[in-house]
Design a protein that fits this description.
Strand order of the largest sheet: 2-3-1-4-5
Number of strands: 5
Distance between the termini: 27 Å
Shape: globular
Length: 183
C-alpha cells in the first residue's frame, strides 16, 4: 500500500476596491502555482456572483451572504489540499473576520492580502466601467465611492499596486506562501 503525504491547501483572499487589480494578480499567481504542479482554484468574485450567489443584491446583508458563501467554498477547497485564490472585494471587516474564523476553526491556512490601490487609481483603471456609471448617476452603491470599504486592519500583506506591476504583486503574494511553507 502506498501512502501519499497530505498536500497543504490554503486560502489567499485578495480584498480591495473595484479595479484594484485583484483578479489580474490572482490569475498571474494561479498560473504560476499551476505551472509548479499545485492544485489551484481561482474563485473569481464576478463568476461566483453569477452562479453561486445569483439573485443576491448589493445590500450589506447580501454582500455578507456572498462573502460567507465564497468563504465556505474556499475553506472546503483549502482544507482538502487546494490553494484557493479569492479575488473578492469583501468590503466589510466583520464578513472577512467570519471567513478567517471559519478557517481557524478547521486549522486551515488563511492569508488576507489587501490590494491597497487608491480609489483615484481604481477610477482611472475602471476595468468594468463602474466608476464612469457611478459618476454619470447610473449606478449607486459602488464600493469605496458611495458605499463603504473597510480596509483590513492587520492583513498578511499589503499590495500598493499603483507602485508595482501585477507580476510584482503576484510575486509578493507567492513570497508569503513560500514563507509559510505552503509552496
Amino acid at each position: 500500500m502506498t501512502t501519499t503525504a497530505r498536500v497543504q491547501g490554503a486560502t489567499v483572499w485578495l480584498t480591495g476596491l473595484p479595479s484594484a487589480g485583484k483578479t489580474t494578480i490572482a490569475r498571474i499567481l494561479g498560473d504560476r502555482l499551476k505551472a509548479e504542479g499545485h492544485r489551484v482554484e481561482v474563485l473569481d468574485g464576478d463568476e461566483i456572483r453569477r452562479f453561486l450567489s445569483a439573485g443576491l443584491g448589493f445590500s450589506r446583508a447580501d454582500r455578507n451572504t456572498n462573502v460567507q458563501r465564497i468563504g465556505l467554498v474556499s475553506e472546503v477547497l483549502a482544507r482538502n489540499g487546494v490553494l484557493s485564490v479569492v479575488p473578492v472585494i469583501a468590503p466589510y471587516a466583520d464578513s472577512r473576520e467570519a471567513v478567517r474564523k471559519r478557517h481557524e476553526a478547521s486549522s486551515t491556512p488563511y492569508i488576507e492580502v489587501h490590494v491597497a490601490t487608491p480609489v483615484e487609481v481604481c477610477s482611472e483603471r475602471d476595468v468594468k466601467g463602474l466608476y464612469a456609471q457611478q459618476a454619470a448617476g447610473r449606478l449607486t452603491g459602488l464600493t469605496g465611492v458611495d458605499d463603504p470599504y473597510e480596509p483590513p486592519v492587520d492583513p498578511s500583506l499589503v499590495l500598493p499596486t499603483q507602485h508595482q506591476t501585477p507580476q510584482e504583486s503576484a510575486d509578493a503574494v507567492y513570497a508569503v506562501l513560500a514563507e509559510r511553507g505552503l509552496v
